[in-house]
Design goal:
Blueprint (H helix, E strand, L loop, with lengths): L6 H17 L4 H18 L5 H12 L2 H15 L6
Protein name: DUF3243 domain-containing protein
Pfam families: DUF3243
InterPro entries: DUF3243, Uncharacterised_YmfJ, YmfJ/YflH_sf
Length: 85
């Protein structure tokens, strides 16, 4: 099963990546920028694998660039306490 198919596993995966980036000294501005780029890529290139991803994809598709940045930042906040660290 792909990490994208289970919402909790997806959040843990993102949390692990976030913690790794923070440990390596990546600043919050860069994390925010990367989250936006990843969100854009997923929205354009990856089919939603669960209901939560579908909602995010639908919201992303109707959001302005500013709103997409806000969604990306909210996802970062959402996964800050996730992961296996």
């Amino acid at each position: 099963m792909s990490v994208l198919e289970n919402w909790d596993q997806w959040k843990d995966f993102l949390g692990d990546r976030l913690h790794s980036a923070e440990h390596e000294g990546v600043n919050q501005e860069m994390i925010s920028s990367l989250a936006y780029e990843i969100g854009s890529y997923l929205a354009e290139s990856v089919e939603a694998k669960n209901p939560q991803e579908k909602v995010l994809a639908d919201l992303w598709s109707v959001a302005s660039s500013e709103e997409q940045h806000a969604i990306a930042n909210m996802m970062v906040k959402l996964v800050q306490n996730n992961g296996t660290h």
